[in-house]
Amino acid sequence: MRETEHEAETGKRPLGVGMVGYSFMGAAHSQGWRTVGRVFDLPLRPVLSAVCGRDGAAVRAAADRLGWAAAETDWRALVARDDVDIIDICTPGDSHAEIAIAALDAGKHVLCEKPLANTVEEAEAMAEAAERARARGQVAMVGFNYRRVPALALARQMIADGRLGTLRHVRLTYLQDWLVDPGFPLTWRLRKDRAGSGALGDLGAHIVDLAQFLAGEPVAGVSALTETFVRERPLLDGVSSGLTGEGSTATGQVTVDDAAVFTGRFPSGALASFEATRFAAGRKNALRLELNGSNGSLAFDLERLNELSFHDHTEPATSSGFRRILVTEPGHPYLEAWWPPGHGLGYEHTFVHQAHDLLHAIATGEQPEPSFAAGLSVQRVLAAVEESAAKNSVYTLVAATPVTV
Hints:
The chain has helices spanning 3-8, 24-39, 56-66, 75-80, 96-105, 120-134, 150-160, 192-195, 199-215, 349-364, 372-391, and strands at residues 14-20, 45-52, 70-72, 86-89, 109-113, 140-143, 167-175, 221-227, 232-234, 251-253, 259-265, 271-277, 286-293, 296-301, 307-312, 323-326. By secondary structure, the protein is an alpha/beta fold. The strands form three sheets. It has an eight-stranded mixed β-sheet. A six-stranded parallel β-sheet has the order 3-2-1-4-5-6, with helices on both faces. A two-stranded antiparallel ribbon has the order 9-10. It is globular and about 60 Å long. Residues 16-139 form the Gfo/Idh/MocA-like oxidoreductase N-terminal domain.
């Protein structure tokens, strides 16, 4: 008997998923939807009803490869399908608001990749649509998948339980290097009209969300610097508007930031520092954070995502220090359904956990986190960073005579 037939016999109500977009994030989300019911005991049975993309041949091939029952080339047709209950948005940011609001107004639940939108105004409209839909029993969630790393979920529990005492410092960095080569082409992620911002929205959104998630309070103020190191890049097709270099390789202007560095303050008085860049040579996906409080500290490195470092400052100095917590025990967040202790998880499992949490929220009627309101909170911080960077007055130190430093 095929597994799908076995699932149908369990009596669990099917919930049809329709996904828009099928590239990197679409593949990751598909992995989550395919796997979640095979690992967790769910209240609902997710069904991969249809995937949507503009290129008919490509989206049909993606449907076959990723496990979707059907393919659509118009997201409006996807939203209108009777066999779709959840719309999962994995497209560039310029289409998030239109698709999400239409889906919510059509009575669908919505999962939207981060950042929520390209502007605060779009994010506000999405949050308002989610609030209206909430009154009808629908839910909307933002895909900040790093919240679903078991070690970070455990860190949140420990902080909420007071293990760090009064929070003093939050510092986060997210470093990648895929733009170091100036010959890398001008993709949609380097265009403000498509992506909204560069490293700030792509990577900075994650660490802003994690800072607020772990601290349990919103960022209240920022001071920022941003930079675009390579301002022109080769065009993918060589024919887009704004090209230069006639008779040579056609190029177009990069209209987003390559890196952002900013400080922040929480209402409690805790200080925060953030760095997001796609120009850190040798760093592929280095998300690192540390939180310091009056009673202890926590540290995490995504490249060691099954581990959490904890220092208990209430212990005697003669025996205290950072210790490694291997986050693979059944009592740790999400781990009860996976492997025996010591058998670690990976990046793809965060999307399984994301699907798990959304399905449980739909079944219970509870608001899943992060909500669209939480996504709007992140969007406001990103906008404040851009405004601060644009207006920042840097005090320049000029030595009267040459100084060796």
